[in-house]
């Protein structure tokens, strides 16, 4: 099933939804994939310096992982194609205009934006402006 590639269609149809939980970005240098599987990260990425894990905050704390910030995850509930051009830039620019950091992860079906814990509602409101702009 192919995702949507048209930027205007993506922006008009996305429904940003805040995911339950609080999330942190941390790293694990052990490359112990069995441990990583038990941690149930919602995202991971292997970098030269170690494996980046996006974990629920309480899981990271239970396992002694260090982290700098706490985030809420916002799912852009529109099936975006991995070949779509401009969605990440549009979202990042919109949030930049509001002074909100955007850490975007593209998955197969949706894009997910991690924003500062205390700015999640403001971020959703900003992203919904795309729908308002496109209906007028």
Rounded mean pLDDT score? 90
Which strand order spans the largest sheet, edge to edge or round the barrel? 1-5-7-6
- Structure annotation, total helices: 5
Q: Any idea what the radius of gyration is? A: 16 Å
CATH class: Alpha Beta
The rough form would be described as globular
Overall number of domains: 1
CATH architecture: 2-Layer Sandwich
Which structural class fits the helix and strand makeup? alpha+beta
The tally of strands reads 7
Which fold name corresponds to the CATH topology? VC0802-like
Helix-strand string: HEEHEEHEHEEH
Q: Low-confidence segments, ≥5 residues, pLDDT <50?
A: none
Our measurement of the CA-to-CA distance between the termini, rounded to an integer number of angstroms, reads 31 Å
DSSP strand content: 25-35%
Q: Could you give me the name of the CATH homologous superfamily?
A: VC0802-like
Kindly state the percentage of residues in helix: 25-40%
* Biggest beta sheet summary: 4 strands, antiparallel
Summarize the structure.
The chain is built from five helices and seven strands. It is α+β, with helices and mostly antiparallel strands and 136 residues long. The strands form two sheets. The chain has a four-stranded antiparallel sheet with strand order 1-5-7-6, covered by helices on one side.
């Amino acid at each position: 099933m192919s995702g949507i590639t048209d930027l205007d269609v993506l922006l008009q149809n996305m429904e940003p939804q805040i995911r339950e939980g609080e999330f942190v970005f941390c790293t694990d240098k052990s490359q112990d994939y069995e441990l990583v599987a038990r941690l149930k990260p919602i995202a991971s990425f292997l970098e030269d310096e170690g494996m980046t894990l996006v974990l629920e905050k309480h899981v990271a704390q239970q396992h002694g992982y260090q982290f700098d910030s706490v985030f809420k995850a916002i799912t852009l509930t529109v099936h975006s194609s991995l070949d779509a051009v401009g969605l990440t830039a549009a979202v990042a620019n919109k949030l930049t205009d509001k002074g909100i950091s955007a850490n975007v992860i593209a998955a197969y079906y949706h894009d997910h934006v991690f924003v500062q814990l205390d700015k999640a509602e403001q971020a959703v409101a900003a992203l919904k402006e795309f729908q308002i702009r496109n209906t007028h």
